[in-house]
Specification:
This protein is an alpha+beta fold and about 475 residues long. It is built from eight helices and 24 strands. A hairpin with a 2-residue loop joins strand 19 and strand 20.
Amino acid sequence: MAVAGSLLAGCDETTDMIGNTLANSNKIVITTDTFNVTSRSVQVESVLARNSTSYIGKVVDEETGAYVTSNSMLQFRIAENYQFPALDRLVSRNAKNEVIVDSCKLVLYYEDYFGNPLQTMKLSVNEMDKPMMENQLYQSNFDPEAAGYIRQNGLKVEKTYTLTDLTVSDSIRNIAGYRKNITIALNDSYTDKKGVVYENYGTYILRKYYENPGYFKNAINLITNVMPGFYIKHVSGLGSMAYVKTPELILYFRYQSTDANNQTQTNKGVTIFSATEEVLQTTHINNDSEAIARLVADPACTYVKTPAGIFTELTLPVDEMLKGHDKDTLNTAKLTINRLNNNTTSKDAFAPASYLMIIPKDSVASFFDRNKIVDNKLSYVAAHINNAYTFSNIAGIINAMNKAGKVSPNWNKAILIPVSITTDSKGTITRVVHDMSLTSTKLMGGTANQQGAIKINAIYSKFQ
């Protein structure tokens, strides 16, 4: 949140500089005005699922009483041109002298979660029949089972778990560096598409490497020829949602090496396949559409709700703001959207969105489809600070709408969208995706609100 604060502070400083510059010029006249903005809630059935965080579990939304279920598709990568030890160095072998891995596991590391960490849940790991591809866009309501992405009679392992792993001692869970996780062993016999039987899934991967090391040259070769990925599906349980980051598929084996004295020794080998931002991850969301529709119908406020639930549509007073200002320049248009308290006071209520993005309505699809970044010209981000979202200057949107003219019924419509952002070490935004976490934000506005209209404050300048 500190990053967002500095980002917004930078915008405020820019706005102040504009005002001071104008005020100190004898040839420039400054005028200000305030206008009303109207708003309404818009139900969103799905959004583009392109996140580095995967969401797994099922919870109840205390505000609506509705259930939210999340499943995820994962793919894995390995360092380019990765090499296992030479075949004749492998010690891990079966009775037929065939190479094997001693064990294999899938580890779902999670940094955060929602709900009760002691609630008993169950998931299943399902082998995918074909990989997700970068040139295809997957929506949050995409069902990989219905679409034929799951291999029939492929690997399927169920796991009962609690987010607080009670099989791990408190002393281990509390040490620095411990990473909370859900671990699924993949050590049962595995049969590939050709009917070849392996000791376990890890052994299948190992032998595919020795069959053709080129399969491990890069992520595309790997997912196309060896490992299309997994579909992690919620099976049962209610009360927790894990926010999974950087899951790993880990193989363990033994191999021999020669030390400096030409002595042979046996080593324990570990190979880790990681699910990172370089490989595609998607989240499949099941929302209660009827419960969402009830919130959308409330005229006394508006909502933004994730995952993939509700956006807020703003009608910006473009005509009013520019009428009579033909010779003026709109320097600043400051918009503040106040947050209202949610209808529930439950401690398990969804938190408000951390960030909202404002963007012209007709630009929403292309922004996310093309993986764009906010440009502070036609798209802006505001953080949740002091129970409000403040866009310091959206003059770029107002001017662009006026210039484009009324060629679309949405010509003066903008959308507020909850987003997750990634920043670099300097605080510069490098990635913007739909927020797929559990959030619910009630905003001042609506067609029959009792809190007063949303205001947009404008500053104009013109030469005398």
